[in-house]
Amino acid sequence: MKDADNAQGSHAPEVEGTQPQEPTGGVEWIGTPEACARLGVTLRTLYRFIDAGQLPAYKMGRVIRLRAHEVEEFIQRARIAPGTLEHLYPEAHPRPARGRRSAGVRSSRSTSGRGRPSRPRRGEEGGQPPAGEAY
């Protein structure tokens, strides 16, 4: 049978217990579900990383594949350096005091609390007329 295999063009000797070399040159390809599991993110987030160019991916027909080592490199690039999250705990850096008004003092312009003038109430000038009245 070995002679028949050699006649068909198989030039590599078979050794028991070894696997044939991958035609991709030893690249470990993973699918999107496995990449999501390794990264701990949803499929939608994975697609965002790919679309933003942060994580390389390859479309083979209708299937998206990623190289395992590129996913690992992405994880290493995402590592947070110590001392870079100070902005997330503001109590460590007190904010300068804002100019606050004393209680009970209002500006001459009435606002609804959102920085814009409040709407006139029913029956007030510019508001809707009270029920039964017409303009």
Tell me what the structure shows.
With 135 residues, the protein is α+β, with helices and mostly antiparallel strands. It has a domain at 32-79. Helices cover 24% and strands 8% of the residues. It is built from four helices and three strands. It has a three-stranded antiparallel sheet. The longest helix has 10 residues, at 68-77. It is elongated and about 85 Å long. It starts with a helix and ends in a 58-residue tail after the last helix. The relative contact order is 0.07.
List the helices and strands and how they pair.
Layout: H1 2-7, E1 29-31, H2 32-39, H3 43-51, E2 58-60, E3 63-67, H4 68-77
Antiparallel strand pairs: 1-3, 2-3
What keywords describe this structure?
8% strand; 135 residues; elongated; 4 helices; three-stranded antiparallel sheet
Summarize this structure briefly.
The chain is α+β, with helices and mostly antiparallel strands and 135 residues long.
Tally of contiguous helical segments = 4
Order of helical and strand elements: HEHHEEH
Strand content: 5-15%
Radius of gyration computed on alpha carbons: 34 Å
How many beta-strand runs? 3
- Terminal-residue CA separation: 104 Å
Mean pLDDT: 76
Spans with pLDDT under 50 lasting ≥5 residues? none
- Numbering strands along the chain, what is their spatial order in the largest sheet? 1-3-2
Helix share, percent: 10-25%
Major sheet attributes: 3 strands, antiparallel
Q: Based on CA inertia axes, which overall geometry fits?
A: elongated
Give the helix/strand class. alpha+beta
